[in-house]
Each structure stands twice: as structure tokens, then as C-alpha cells.
Design brief:
4 helices; outer membrane lipoprotein receptor (LolB), chain A; two-stranded antiparallel ribbon; 273 residues; globular; twelve-stranded mixed β-sheet; alpha+beta; single chain
């Protein structure tokens, strides 16, 4: 039972990463540079004194956003992708750089302060226990017809939801208080004219293909570039994950930005938490 829950939550975490605005290109291609802000906010779906909600906030903050928020600068030439963290995130220190060079199966995570890097591969979720299957999720996408200009981009508000009964292997005993389902709700503002380069698709495809049948590809097709997003998960009651593009402009980045710098030493990849 624990393995199934871990696999399901790990997949949701992968999709959370994928749903953030990925490096993109406008219809005709070309370079872009934009800043993306991510933070967590309390909501009224749980009491501030609720121990479950408090633990969820604390675990997410420690594991993903130790400072409660972070800014990331994305740069793309329309093919390769570079992301620089302006603060610590997911165990990576401030100043870390993530590279997805075009035409490669893997990416790199650079630590400029120590001049080291490790190889970044698409996420692979653990296999389900023998005899276990995943229930079919319910996925909805509802465009609102409401538009707003965000960071200079025209975006439409699109409400999305995803829910799935908690998978229980045959003969397993469900513990008291165990949630019966897992769900997510999105309020996304989608820029329909922005498209991702192939290098950015690797991460999204890895998340979608890691556990088949979860239906997340519906989200990525309906909203390939979310200029603003608010996500609410049943696994983290009382918390919204809020993100927004704060600046966006065309650019002509140097090809050297997407290469491993000289003098860097490869180190082992850390535990993929």
C-alpha cells in the first residue's frame, strides 16, 4: 500500500514540475527569456491549526521551497533550454543551472559555485506491486472564455481537475483515516500561442510515460504554457501552489549558454527526492 501511495504521489510531483511554464517558443520559433515565480500560499480548505495541513506545508517547504518561494530564469533559443535558480529549490542551491541541450536524451544540473555537474534523466517511477492496477482517473478541462494580459501575453483562464480513487491491491487492508482518493485542481491562465521546444518536452513526456494511464497528457495538450497557475492538491490540504511568469521577452541567447562550461567536474546524481 505504501509503495502504491509513494508511486502515485511521486507521479503527481513529476507532473507538478511539468505543469510549470516550460521553456517555450512562439509560433515562428526564436529565442525567449522569461522569469518565473513559484510560491506556496495557505487557503481556507483546512484550519491553520490542522496538524495534517501544517505537516503538508512544512514537508513541501522543506523539500521543494525552503524559503517559501523561488524565482527561476528560463532561456531558450527555440531548441535548447536553460534554467537558473535565483534561490534554493528541491535540494538544489541558489544559482544552480539546469540545461536541456537539444538533441540529447539527458540534461545537466550545474553548480557554478563548486564547478560541478550531474546528469539529469527523465523521471522514472517505481513499478507497481504485483497484482496492483491503477484506477482510471477523471480528468476535466474547462476553458472559461475569460482573457487577461499577463507579462505581455494574452492568456485564457482554463479550469482543470484530476481525481483518482486511491489504488488498493487485492487483499490489502485499508488503514483507518486513509484517503479514498487523490485529486488536484488547477486554475491556469494559458497562452495559446506559445509552444515548447523539443528539449522541454522530454521532462513532460517522462512524467506522462512513467506511469501509463494517468491522463496527464490531457493537461499538457490543453495548456502547454501556463502564464499563471494556482494548483490545489488533496494530498496537501490548506495549501495552494501558485506560479506566474513575471517578465517575458524575445532574446537571441549565445549558443554557449546551453553547453557544459569548461573546467566542470561530473559528480554522482543525488537521491531523486
Amino acid at each position: 500500500m505504501k509503495k502504491i501511495v509513494i508511486a502515485a504521489l511521486a507521479s503527481l510531483t513529476a507532473v507538478l514540475g511539468a505543469q510549470q511554464p516550460p521553456p517555450a517558443q512562439t509560433g515562428g520559433g526564436g529565442g525567449l527569456r522569461f522569469v518565473y515565480a513559484l510560491k506556496i500560499e495557505r487557503n481556507n480548505t483546512a484550519s491553520p491549526s490542522d496538524p495534517v495541513a501544517t505537516m503538508a506545508v512544512e514537508n513541501f517547504r522543506k523539500g521543494v521551497l525552503p524559503e517559501g518561494s523561488v524565482e527561476m530564469e528560463f532561456v531558450t533559443d527555440g531548441q535548447s533550454v536553460r534554467t537558473e535558480l535565483r534561490g534554493p529549490m528541491s535540494g538544489l542551491p541558489k544559482g544552480s543551472v539546469v540545461l536541456f541541450p537539444a538533441g540529447q536524451a539527458a540534461g545537466y544540473v550545474l553548480n557554478p559555485a563548486e564547478k560541478t555537474y550531474f546528469v539529469l534523466r527523465p523521471p522514472q517511477m517505481p513499478p507497481l506491486p504485483p497484482g496492483a492496477t491503477l484506477p482510471k482517473p477523471a480528468v476535466t478541462v474547462k476553458p472559461s472564455g475569460t482573457f487577461e494580459t499577463i507579462a505581455g501575453l494574452k492568456a485564457e483562464k482554463v479550469n482543470m481537475s484530476w481525481s483518482m480513487p486511491m489504488p488498493v491491491p487485492p487483499g490489502a487492508e485499508v488503514q483507518p483515516g486513509m484517503p479514498k482518493d487523490i485529486s488536484m485542481e488547477y486554475e491556469n491562465w494559458c497562452a495559446p500561442d506559445i509552444r515548447m521546444p523539443a528539449a522541454a518536452m522530454k521532462l513532460m513526456q517522462g512524467a506522462e510515460q512513467s506511469i501509463q494511464g494517468l491522463g496527464f497528457e490531457t493537461f499538457t495538450k490543453a495548456c502547454p504554457f501556463a502564464v499563471r497557475s494556482r494548483m490545489r492538491m488533496s494530498a496537501m490540504p490548506g495549501v495552494d501552489v501558485v506560479s506566474e511568469v513575471t517578465s517575458f521577452r524575445r532574446d537571441n541567447p549565445s549558443p554557449d549558454l546551453f553547453k557544459l562550461p569548461p573546467g566542470y567536474t561530473e559528480v554522482p546524481s543525488p537521491t531523486p527526492k
